[in-house]
Design a protein that fits this description.
Largest sheet: 4 strands, antiparallel
Strand order of the largest sheet: 1-2-3-4
Helix content: under 10%
Structural class: mainly beta
Distance between the termini: 14 Å
Number of helices: 0
Radius of gyration: 15 Å
Order of helices and strands: EEEEEEEE
Number of domains: 1
Number of strands: 8
Shape: globular
Length: about 130
Amino acid sequence: MPTAFLDGNNNINVLFSARDEYNKSRIGVVTLSSQNPSLIIKEHENISLDLGSPGSFDDSGVMPSSIINIEGIYYLYYIGWNERKIIPYHNSIGLAISEDGLNFRRMFEGPIMDRYLDEPFFLIPHCYS
């Protein structure tokens, strides 16, 4: 789920998730020209948001979902997932922040949204528009 936003230089940063050889997903970023989005300005080598701690809601993967900028702080809502025994995986929603839109850190170790009393089976990923 690529998630795009304009950076401070009026370029397009695209957050995306790629899987490794163990099927774990991490968030990376590529910067595109806003004048010509097919032109890649930079492929950032650092991981923008890595896996959570073992046993946490996002220890098997993180995927961007939506991002907003409030007074120069980027708030990234992301899907965290972990593997399960009976069903393949479990999704939750986490929140990470960044001052530069490239390097994110979790606001909380746990999810901000998860399954709950009235919806015990599934949490649908969200999108802000």
